[in-house]
Amino acid sequence: MTPQCKPAGLKKTKLWEYGVRFAFGGLVTAGAGLVADGYGPELGGFMLAFPAILPASLTLIKQHDGRAKAVDDARGARLGSLALAIFGVTVGYSATSWPPVAALGLATLAWIVVAVALWAIAYGGGSAVAHRLNH
Amino acid sequence: MLAELGFRFLLGGAIVSLFAAFAEMWDPKTFAGLFGAAPSVALATLALGFYQHGGSYVAIEARAMVMGSIALLAYSAACVAIAKTRRLPLAVGAAAAWTVWLVAALGLWRLGAMTGIL
C-alpha cells in the first residue's frame, strides 16, 4: 500500500470545521504556555503532547467517512505519537547547542522520517505487523 | 501577558490547522492519522520558548514532552478502542479519553520526578 496525496480531500471539510481545529490548537498552545509559566517547563512540556487535533479529527472523519475510517485514523495517531517522542529527544539533545531553527527543523524532519518509516513497517506491505495492529 | 497569550493562541491555532489540513489530503486514513500526533503545539511553544527563555529551558520542556508522548500513545490506543465500540458516541468517547492522557501524564510526571529524569 502506498500513501496517496489527494488535495480534493480538503473540500470535504467545511470552514467551521477548520475553525474548530484552530480554536482547539490555539487554546492548547495558550494553555501550555500558562502551565509552563505557572508550574515550570517540566510540567509545561507534557502539554506539548496533549491530544489537540485528534478528538476533532476523529469526530469529523466519522461524520464524513464512517466509523471504520475513524478507527484507522486513531491507529495512525498511535504511530505518530511514537515519532513525537523522537521529536522530543532530538530537541532535547540539540536545543542547547544548535540555533532554534536548526534544532526545530531537524526534529520535525526526524518526526516525519520516523512516522513514515513506522507506517511503512506497520501498513506499507500487508505485513504480519499490520495484521496484529488491525486486530 | 494578554498579548502574549493572544499571540500563542494565533500561532498555535495556525500551526494545528495547517497540520490538520495537510492530513485531510492523505489516503489511507492510517497514514493521515500520523498527523493527529504531529508536533504542532510543540513547534509553536518551543519556538516561543527559545525566544523567551533560551535553549536550556527548551531542552527541559522537550524531555518532558518525550514522556508526554507516551501519554499520547495511551490516548491514541484508547481512541482506537473507543472508535471500535458503537455503544458510545465518538465525540463523547474521544473527549472522555482525555482522562486517559491526564492520568498517564501525571503518573509519568511523578515517575520522572522520582527517578530524576525530569
Describe this structure in words.
The complex is a heterodimer of chains A (135) and B (118). Chain A has 135 residues and is mainly alpha-helical. Chain A has a domain at 72-135. Chain A has 6 helices and 1 strand, in the order βαααααα. Chain A has helices spanning 15-39, 41-47, 54-65, 67-94, 100-124, 128-133; one strand at 4-5. Chain A is globular, with a radius of gyration of 17 Å. In chain A, 48% of the residues are buried. Chain B is mainly alpha-helical and 118 residues long. Chain B folds into 2 domains: 1-53, no CATH class; 55-118, no CATH class. In chain B, 81% of the residues lie in helices and 2% in strands. Chain B contains 6 helices and 1 strand, in the order H-E-H-H-H-H-H. The longest helix of chain B is centred in the middle third of the chain and has 30 residues, at 55-84. The chains are: A mainly alpha (135), B mainly alpha (118). Strand 1 of chain A pairs antiparallel with strand 1 (26-27) of chain B, so a sheet runs across the interface.
